[in-house]
Each structure stands twice: as C-alpha cells, then as structure tokens.
Amino acid sequence: MSVDTPEELEGLQRVGRVVAETIAAVREAAVPGVTTAELDAIAEAVFERHGARSGPILTYDYPGSICLSIDDEIVHGIPGSRVLRAGQLLTIDVAAELDGFHADAATTIAIGEPSPEADRLLAAGRRALAAGIEAARPGATLRDVGAAIEATVEWDGFHVARELTGHGIGRKMHEPPTVFNWPAPFEEASERLTEGLVFTIEPMITAGDPQFAAAADGWTIRSLDGARSTHEEHTVMVRRGGALVLTDSVA
Ligand code: MG
C-alpha cells in the first residue's frame, strides 16, 4: 500500500510494533532444548495479547502462527516437535495483522554460540538488509534496492536466492510490487519509489549454491545442496531522508 494519512501510518506502526515484540519474545526463548512448537505458542500469545492475528494463518491457512526455519531451510519452516540444538541457525519470520494493517519481519539467529562461519553468514544477512533499506529512497527504483543488496552479499562471499523476494504489504500480507534482491532486468523492477510506499525488504541468502526446492510438506523451502541460509526482513515505508522501518521497535 501507499500511506496517505497519519491514521494509516499509525495503524502500520502499531502492527509493526507487535511484529517486533513477537520476534524479540521468540528470540529470547530460542535456546537449546526448546521445540519450535513451543516458540510458536509464545508468538501466538503475543498476538493474542494485542488482539493481532497471524498473517500466514489469515492469508494462507498456514499450519503455524509464525515460520521457524532451521539451518538449510531458507523460509516457511513449520513449527512442530523439533528440538533446537546448540549450533543451529534459526530464522524467526513473523507476519501479523492488526485492525486491517499488516507487517512482516524476520531475523536469523544462532542457537547457542555461533561458529565463526555462521557468524559471517548472519552478519552478511544483516548488512544486506541495511544496504537495501539505505537504497530505498524516493526516486530510486526497485532495481536499485536489489542491486545494493546483491552487491553487499557478493562482497561478503555469499549468494542471494534470487527467486525469493520481498513484496508490497499493508492492507494485505502480500501486495505488489515484487521486491527483488538482485538487479532484476524485469520491467516491474523499473518502478520508481514514491513517498509513502510500503514494502518488505528481505534478502534470503545461502552459504552455498543458492538453488532451492520445496520440501514434501508443501511449505518448507530449503537449499538443494544443504548449505545454511539467513533471512533478514523489515517492513519499510519510503520517505525523504531515508526509509522508515516499521518493524524495528517494540510496543
Ligand atoms: Mg515477507
């Protein structure tokens, strides 16, 4: 969506804070020995406390309140009986709806102490997201955002999973435009960013060959070569002086 009124911005900021608070609560509880179902229940409790609803359930009838993806799972891992172990990488991906507004964010964390390689991958993901946010300015194109992201990722020695993208968001969980994490030659990437436009920036990168496939559960997307992955995401609004990040402050 594109924000036209202070009320719309306020609605987005409210749901953005719920998303940020949910990620913080799940991150805090993500220690060795915990199951992903237990983390999902924590997210559900935060949603309930605020009167928010899970975006994936509302929109796709997804089998969990949030997505929890481990190691080579890039996105859409389903919460369940799996027990977290030290050394794993966990992506916490949270989309919520509150009063008709949607926000979406994700982060990847290490369970226990990360190895130096894992640390490098996680840092590359955070840098890629920051580069994308920095490039999201009025007058720039979506291609500029993708170019900034991929250049950062390649510089760090990793690769973007190019078919996985960010998206417009606001009144629905997924809206146009498609936000590529690379300088896509497609016409739609020529779209110029205007003030008020709201979308996600979400580089998904792997430590190996960035090809992937859907698992038998119909949801989980994992790297074909088993390489680990990272996914950092914020919902942002374009404005002069730099994009406003809607999902980085807790209620
Ligand atoms: Mg998203």
Please describe what this structure looks like.
- The chain has 251 residues and is an alpha+beta fold.
- The protein is 31% helix and 24% strand.
- The strands form 5 sheets. Strands 1, 2, 4 and 5 form a 4-stranded antiparallel beta sheet that branches. A 3-stranded antiparallel beta sheet has the order 3-12-11, with no helix packed on it. Strands 6-10-13 form a 3-stranded antiparallel beta sheet, with helices on one face.
- The model has no long low-confidence stretch (mean pLDDT 97).
- It binds magnesium ion.
- Magnesium ion binds next to loops.
Q: What small ligands are held by the chains?
A: magnesium ion
Given helix and strand content, the structural type is alpha+beta
Order of helices and strands: HHEHEEEEHHEEEEEEEEEE
* H/I helix tally: 5
Q: Identify low-pLDDT runs.
A: none
What does the main sheet amount to? Answer: 4 strands, antiparallel
Strand content: 15-25%
Cα distance spanning the termini: 22 Å
Shape: globular
Amount of helix: 25-40%
